[in-house]
Design goal:
The chain is of the alpha+beta class. Helices cover 35% and strands 19% of the residues. The chain has a 3-stranded antiparallel β-sheet with strand order 2-1-5. The chain has a two-stranded antiparallel sheet with strand order 3-4. It is extended and about 40 Å long.
C-alpha cells in the first residue's frame, strides 16, 4: 500500500466578475492563509455548497441536471501548454481575465 494518496483534479479556467471589495478580500484572505486566490475561491465555494442543505437537496432533483451553463469557461490551449491569464493592475489591485475553478 502506498504511503501517499494523490488525488488529481481537473482544473478549468473560467471568467467571473466580483465586486471590487470582494476581490480585495479574496486577495487578503489568500495572503492570510498563504494560498492562491484561486484556491480561496475554490475552497470557499465548495464550503458553501457543502453546508447549504437546501442546495444539497436540489442536487438530488432532475432539475439540477438540466441547469443551463452560465459560467464562462475558457478553452484550454491547443498546444497542451499552460496559458497565463492576462493581468492588469488598476489602483493597486491586480485583476486577471480568468480565474481557475474546479469542476466537480
Amino acid at each position: 500500500m502506498p504511503l501517499l494518496e494523490i488525488n488529481q483534479s481537473r482544473h478549468i479556467c473560467a471568467s467571473v466578475r466580483l465586486d471590487e471589495a470582494t476581490a480585495a478580500k479574496v486577495d487578503q484572505y489568500a495572503a492570510f492563509i498563504h494560498a492562491s486566490a484561486d484556491d480561496v475561491v475554490d475552497k470557499a465555494l465548495n464550503y458553501v455548497f457543502s453546508k447549504d442543505r437546501d442546495f444539497q437537496e436540489f442536487l438530488k432533483t432532475p432539475q439540477a441536471k438540466q441547469v443551463a451553463t452560465t459560467l464562462r469557461v475558457r478553452k484550454a490551449p491547443s498546444n497542451g501548454g499552460v496559458e497565463e491569464p492576462a493581468r492588469k493592475i488598476v489602483a493597486g489591485v491586480e485583476s486577471t481575465t480568468s480565474v481557475r475553478a474546479v469542476k466537480a
